[in-house]
Amino acid sequence: MNLEFREYQAKRILNVHKHVDGGWFWDKYSAHPYIGCRHGCEFCYSRGGHYLGKRDPDTFDTLIQVKTNAPELLRKEIARRTPDVISCGDWQLPAEEKYGLSRRMLEVVLEFGFPLLVIERSPFLLRDLDLLQEINQRSWAGVTLSFSNVDPVLKNAFEPRSPGLEPRLQMMEKIARAGILVGMNLMPVLPVVGDGDTHLEAAVRAARDHGASFVLAAGLTMAGAQAERTLAAAKRLDPALEAPWRNLYRWTEGGAPNYTPPPADSIRLGRKVRELCIRYGLRDRIPRHIGAGPLAVNKRIAERLFLKIHDLELEQAAEQRIWTYRKAAWAVDECPQSIAVIHASMGESGLRALPGIGAGIAGEIAKWLTERS
Ligand code: SF4
After folding, report:
1. Residue 337, by phi and psi: left (phi above 0), alpha (psi -120 to 50) or beta?
2. Is the CB of 162 under 6 A from ligand 1?
3. pLDDT by residue (tens digit) across 344-371?
4. Which CATH number applies to 296-372: 2.60.40.1180, 1.10.150.110, 1.10.10.10, 3.20.20.70?
5. Distance in Å, CA 335 to ligand 1 centroid
6. Mean pLDDT of the chain
7. What distance in angstroms lies between residue 46's CA and the mean position of ligand 1's atoms?
8. Residues 67/8, Cβ–Cβ less than 8 Å
9. What is the pLDDT of residue 51?
10. pLDDT computed for residue 49 by the predictor
11. Strand 15-16 to strand 29-31: parallel, antiparallel, or no bridges (unpaired)?
12. 34, 37, 43, 156: which to mutate for ligand 1, most atoms within 8 A of CB?
């Protein structure tokens, strides 16, 4: 298979999220040096959507666009921002070996004292373990390693060119031994073939055995060219998979699939992974990094509100109730004043004056604040 690198000078590198990615990766910023990925996993969501712009999705793994000015741009853009968690870098081979941009981006992250979350599949990340440790000492570093499963047959069917399972698990162990928070990104869990109890338990057990602190799981989303390729891979594995997969995504021949499987399937997956994580002593969410300072209390209370959203989803609570918590979590997370100070001076009425916080949640927050003092 041919591989072409196309170098260019990017105009921007730092994505600034409107809200922190609460309950999931907790990042406020992200920055990546390459577009396209040689590992070419069939289910990769970057094949669809806006990520590739006007590029032919079939070039995703044969043409890598290289933002050669990524570290310099990051330095310029990060200097104007308040430190918060940044998800940064991309250790895909052979791009990172040739250009080394991710390492240089980590040097910038270290220089400015930003906390870092790395989301990665490639053991080439271990080249930069020294820098991860330095960042962890100065601010914070966490790593979440991606697996769709730990079954070699499924791995070869859906991600034939990604790094092997064993090297990924070994990497997990080395990162844990270096004192850095590490866990498993179990996504996308492949429906029908990979979401049974045996597959899920094998993944959670492997994570626990290799030093993970958490397993963060999610099902498969389907869109555009990515959906076509993923279904084709499933059919190559077993033609009998086509009917249940189409049924799951309400996908008729010639039509478009639903983006997600039915909510009941996602809830079953979430509940099962939670049950397994409890059994194996892991968390089913990434612990949030919260730096010191007067607003740390806001971040901690917002974390509880975000985590409550996931609890409510697993309980199949009404969408409106979930949104109430989401809006409250954003309001607390983004409040420029300490909510502990607001509560101390004005009581619950001060909390209720924040946008999106009603009497019920204000009472809950007040209770949490009182527990802390
Ligand atoms: S390694 Fe990650 S970015 Fe690369 S193709 Fe696979 S899922 Fe996509």
Report:
1. beta
2. yes
3. 999 999 999 999 899 999 999 999 999 8
4. 1.10.150.110
5. 36
6. 96
7. 8
8. yes
9. 77
10. 67
11. antiparallel
12. 37
